[in-house]
UniProtKB/TrEMBL annotation:
Residues 81-134 form a coiled coil. Keywords: ATP-binding, Coiled coil, Hydrolase, Nucleotide-binding. InterPro entries: ATPase_AFG1-like, P-loop_NTPase. GO terms for cellular component: cytoplasm; mitochondrion. The keyword Cell membrane does not apply. Belongs to the AFG1 ATPase family. GO terms for molecular function: ATP binding; ATP hydrolysis activity. This is AFG1-family ATPase. Gene3D superfamilies: P-loop containing nucleotide triphosphate hydrolases.
Amino acid sequence: MHPRKTVKFSEYEETMRRRIWSLLSNKNKLTFPIPISNSRVIPFLSYCTDPSRILNHNHPGPLVQYKNLVDQGKLQHDPYQESVATELQNLLSRLENYEREMEEYHVNLSNWEKKRENERRRILMDEVEKQQNDKDWWKRLNNKITERWTNSRKRPENVDPGVGKWVSYLKREKKLDSLVGRRPTAPPAPKGLYIYGNVGSGKTMLMDMFYSATEGIVKHRRRYHFHEAMLRINEHMHKTWKKQMEEKPLQSGISSWIMNLPFDTKAKEWLAAEERYKKEVQMKHILPDVADKFFLDREGEEKGANILCFDEIQTVDVFAIVALSGILSRLLSSGTIIVATSNRAPKDLNEANMVPEFFQNLLSNLEEHCEKVLVGSEIDYRRFIAQRSENRVNYLWPIERETINKFEKKWQDATGRFGGKVISNTISVMFGRTLEVPESCEGVARFTFDYLCGRPLGAADYIAVAENYHTVFISDIPMMSMRIRDKARRFITLIDELYNHHSCLCCLASSSIDELFQGTEEGTLFDLESFQFETEAEGSKLRRDVLAEGNVGSGGTPVGITSILSGQEELFTFQRAVSRLIEMQTQLYLDGVSNVHPYFQTQHKKFQKNRDNLLSESSSV
């Protein structure tokens, strides 16, 4: 047996270089860019083997991050922002203990569920054994079924045909409660935060500081923008319903655990019917199922707390209110901590007064489980940061020979870093669709404005682009006007998703950022942001079916909710688009691309996996 070898860090670093070289190298593709204005490139190997990146798993808290940026002159101190950062820091300090409590809770819950299922099956078998001793029981049961069928026309309309099974089901559940006890109660969760304020006040930045600081403390973390979350909820509901329809014919069979019981065929059929009814009851509660399987989505047997960071929460239509009400109710009741941002206070989210009973449930949950924190500054800090940064060299205008040449050079430089092999590609989009990408190269893609915004594409397509490409070039961007308002709306959605995924954006446009959305002599733009979903393109009617049917205005907008699409909402939309375009040109934003974007996150995870394998190998030497 070989003695255990102590590996010094210098030896480890050399081992990492050699192994990663063999695993990941491909001729000249040994660097990846941090896509910033001065084309700085960090060597991949030295980046990966930097001791601070390998050994430091603890991220500084949001208050520390905020103060560091202020000290470095990258942010201007704002008392509102510091107050929010302090609240987030306090929440972070309570998470470690809460994570342990939730781990214990989930162990207890798992044991309770197993015990309850075993008891439920035992009760069912006891019922069968008891009734089988009564020779006339099956005859009486068949007579009851025949009688129910015969008298179905006489039954009052408000009586459900399955009321008998429902009563039996409830009695059985009550008996289980007395035998096994009620479901374990989750430990009280720390209150989350609902952060609201004006465009550019720093809400998303502060939330993201908190989210990054939870890594290593909380196992189950999710961060979604509102539009992406709604799309994924829609997609998951569609998959759930489809799965239920596919499984329904299979449920007419008898489960294997029932087939192996020492009962006759009639008894097994009765047991199978009771099992099917239980599944039917569970199928009716689709939103909790979406919450459990989509947002929680636990891997294996890992247990612990849940953090959901929800950016730009809105209630733009009936579907959003109903979905958010049901899903957040489930998540909050199971101990999930919500940190959300919005332009509006909770009580002001539903000025159109749609489905008030559902909205009141949503509002009650938010107010009970979240502290409301206002970022009250009137300053757009994205503009402030841009004014103190280098020139905005990634947004080129107007469209003339000089700017076209600069745009082409930037494209050649970006693709050249990866060998310069530009290919067409096909990427997957939600709802089983795909999108053709005409020009791409190792995480860099190029499109024209009309290709992305002049066709019936929607948020799902733009999410796919943002997830797959850390650097996106868009040429031939016109000034927005009433004549191309649909294209303008799609462009705003595209900007939102590129920003949410922290992509680097290089534009060739007809006008400056400030003038891009000012409109033309045709008038100001009409805001269609509330309809981010292109249902025709996404091949699903689930979301549209929830809306009021029939009453459609001349612009294709349901008349009942056009009031949302004007006034303050329109102002928020264009202010946010301009503000985000400005921030996306700043050094602070661009420096974060290589750390935050999903493309590089995937690279980091691959590296960490290889690193862990190497550490395991070296420890066994």
